[in-house]
Amino acid sequence: MVNYRRPVLRRVLTSAAIGLVLAVTGPAGLAQASGGAASASTGTAASKARAVCPPTTLWANTGGTARNLIQYDTTGSTLSTAPLVRDYGDIAFSPNGSTLYGVDFPGAAGSTTLYTINPVTGAETASTPITGPLAAVTPTPAVNGLTARADGTLIAGSFSTSQIFLIDPATGGSTLFPVSFPAGIVSAGDFITLDDGDILAFGTPDTTSPSPVFRIRPDNTIIQIGTVPQTFGAAKSAGQVYAFTSNGDINQLNSLPTTASTAALPVTTVEATGLGFYGATSTQDAGTCVTPAYTIAKTATPARKANEGDTITYRVTVRNTGATAATGNFTDDLSDVLDDATLVPGSVTSTTGTASVTGDTLTWTGTLAPGATATVTYQVTVNTPDTGDRTLTNTAVPTAPGGTCTTSRACTVTIRVEKTKDCDKPGHGKPGHHPGDKPGHGHDHDHGDADYNHDSEEGVGK
Predict the structure, then answer these.
(1) Three-class DSSP category at 332
(2) 438, HSE (Cβ side, Cα atoms, 13 Å)
(3) CA separation (Å) from 126 to 117, 140, 272, 343?
(4) In the predicted model, what is the mean pLDDT of residues 443-456?
(5) Residues with Cβ < 8 Å from 390, sequence gap 6 or more?
(6) Is pLDDT at 37 greater than 90 in this prediction?
(7) Alpha-carbon dihedral 357, 360, 361, 362, rounded to 10 degrees
(8) Cα dist. 237→38, 148, 307, 315 in Å?
(9) Residue boundaries of the structural domains of the chain
């Protein structure tokens, strides 16, 4: 598959970029900039080790002729896909996970723009022109690295210079970060705040070589710790870093040394997508422990008992209870329902997302904004006669990170099919007045009905 990522443009920019790198960085390979208050606070922003977070999902953007925002779990399975309106050099969630940013690539001479993106739909919701030294980078800003820091500012890199920048997302103003990549190296595509407080940075010497990986210390020193296959974006989940490569692989970095090295870092390819990645992010890249959270709850009408021929309506409600966009996927095993009933054709509906039944399993996939809900509805008709076990039990199970049931019983519904009693058959009178009954024995028959109903109710919820 053709990679529509930045390499085509990078072939044009490389000579100018490397020339600018040598001019800006100098032989020491470490520029100390006087970029104002934002630069001065860099050391404190990464001075404390972070606790390892629970797992979260990974987001990536592709570009060229197939611009999409794609959400993955850490095994590489696709959780959601939304179309994008333009190429973004990189994307980044705010530290609390509530805002997704993107920066246009490559921008124009003297101009580049920071956008906010709806992670559910991919639509742009706001735009802010970037000003200051980043916008002035020549020949174009070519921003291809973007990540939030814990203080809310964005750290950004460019393919046209070895300098690193800070962006105030509220104003678009940029300042110089007090650290640069070494001479001959420009940004490859991302920065990650590690759990030990260092910033992991991916560079590149050209359009084809492996990416050197650096640690930026809180004291504003930088060391290379190894190389990885050419990487255009990275994201962190539960302390693990995942690199999104130029050939479409998603690689988990198995080791992040703390000492200087140029050796290849061991990686595990969790998925070979073949896609043209432009960037990647997660809600934990800033060193914060933001995780997706959603709940599911299930009801049925009638709720506990049904008769042969009755139609039962099931409803599963999915609610995003977290602060960031979440995929609320779930499955519902219908095997213990369909031995007693038949799915009503065309009855499977969803207020948003996609619901479908394959074999005996209903599946729903969809991404919800914080506080949003989705309702999935389907119906079955109890068979006449019911030759199954006369008990319909099924459980909805969340299948994406952060999913839970609202209570321990909220995801399971059990419905019992009433037995046809002899007294309801033709030729039978009222209870207690059957032919041959002795006087005073009607009470025994009524007591039997009471026992039956008690057992039926008692079985519910087991």
Answers:
(1) strand
(2) 2
(3) 8, 22, 33, 45
(4) 38
(5) 340, 416, 417, 419
(6) no
(7) 40
(8) 27, 15, 49, 32
(9) 7-281, 294-420, 428-462
Average pLDDT over residues 216-244: 97
Six-digit token string for 12:
């044009």
320 by DSSP, 3-state: which? strand
Q: What are residue 459's phi and psi, to 5 degrees?
A: -75, -20
What CATH number was assigned to the domain covering residues 294-420? 2.60.40.1530
Half-sphere exposure of residue 187, counting CA atoms within 13 Å on the CB side?
Answer: 32
Asked if 146 contacts 117 with a C-beta cutoff of 8 angstroms, the reply is: no
Element at 444 (helix H, strand E): helix 442-459
CB 276 within 8 A of CB 260: no
Tokens of 354: 């996609």
Write out the E strands in 217-366: 222-228, 231-237, 240-245, 249-253, 267-272, 277-281, 294-301, 305-306, 311-320, 326-327, 330-333, 341-343, 349-350, 354-358, 361-365
d(CA 147, CA 282): 9
Domain 7-281 coded CATH 1.10.486 = no
448 Cβ partners below 8 Å, 6+ apart?
A: none
Rounded to whole angstroms, the Cα distance separating 262 from 438 reads 98
Cα angle 294-296-300, degrees, rounded to a multiple of 5: 165
Render 26-95 in DSSP notation, one character per residue: -TTS-------HHHHTHHHHT-SPPPPPPP--EEEEE-TTS-EEEEE-TTS-EEEEEE-SS-EEEEEE-T
Q: Considering only residues 19 and 279, tell me which one the structure prediction assigns the higher pLDDT.
A: 279
